[in-house]
Write a structure and sequence with these properties.
- This protein folds into two domains: 179 residues, Ribonuclease H-like superfamily/Ribonuclease H (Nucleotidyltransferase, domain 5), CATH 3.30.420; 33 residues, no CATH class.
- The protein contains nine helices and five strands, in the order E-E-E-H-H-H-E-H-E-H-H-H-H-H.
- A five-stranded mixed sheet has the order 3-2-1-4-5, with helices on both faces.
- Helix 4 links the parallel strand 4 and strand 5.
């Protein structure tokens, strides 16, 4: 399975009011391993960021002035995402902005270019109901190092999201990149971890006493449920 962790930075909070995407960061994972492949774009939004947004991302008008416009990177961006599941934290925000950018260049909405969109914020709310589930809060809860996150950056945040996601879905200590290389970005957010996939799985057979005890427990469950233990019917 090919999955892409994606994040954006924008000039403000409302694409309907004319705010634009100024940065896109993507990190690829295939079969739950980082590949080292990324896409990272700084974009000229042809407008200024709001003061509030500038405090968050720190990308000034001067820095973005010579960067490509979204129309210039759209084909490369969409081709790279083709067929992948895209994982975004608070996906509605980012996809709404991307839909507006795509509409400007005459392309279909974002969701039609990918296999699916997974919102990791909704996943976190199910796992940790009633708690704060921002990316920073999840990093603290799941012990993901985000000490280099003084400002928001799309590629940095996509990397942190990848680490958070793998811990939410499997509890693995860290992501493993192909060929034993350490997954990295500008922040150095990932740590090296040993890949145990090639080790043989040790299968332990139960003893007769353990089998008898297991059957006793199943019989009690069958009795308590009024004969509704459907797995017995499936086995027979």
């Amino acid at each position: 399975m090919r999955q892409i962790f994606l994040d954006t930075e924008t000039t403000g909070l409302s694409p309907e009011a004319g705010d634009r995407v100024i940065e896109i960061g993507c990190i690829e994972m295939v079969n739950r391993r980082l590949t080292g492949n990324t896409r990272h774009y700084y974009l000229n939004p042809e407008r200024s960021s709001s003061p509030e947004a500038l405090e968050v991302h720190g990308l000034t008008d001067e820095f973005l002035a010579d960067k490509p416009k979204f129309a210039e990177v759209a084909d490369d961006f969409l081709a790279w995402l083709q067929g992948a599941e895209v994982i975004i934290h608070n996906a509605a925000f980012d996809t709404n902005f991307l839909d507006h950018e795509l509409k400007r260049v005459g392309r279909e909405p974002f969701a039609r270019h990918v296999q699916g969109v997974c919102d990791s914020l909704l996943m976190a709310r199910e796992l940790f109901p009633g708690k704060r589930n921002s990316l920073d809060a999840l990093c603290a809860r799941l012990e993901v190092d985000n000490s280099n996150r003084t400002l928001h950056g799309a590629l940095l945040d996509a990397g942190l999201l990848a680490e958070v996601f793998i811990r939410m879905t499997r509890g693995q200590d860290s992501l493993v990149i192909d060929h034993g290389q350490a997954a990295s970005n500008a922040s150095g957010a990932f740590s090296v971890s040993q890949d145990l996939a090639g080790l043989p799985l040790l299968l332990v057979q139960p003893e007769d006493q353990e089998r008898a005890e297991h059957e006793r427990v199943l019989a009690e469950l069958d009795k308590a449920s009024g004969g509704k233990t459907v797995w017995r019917e499936l086995v027979s």
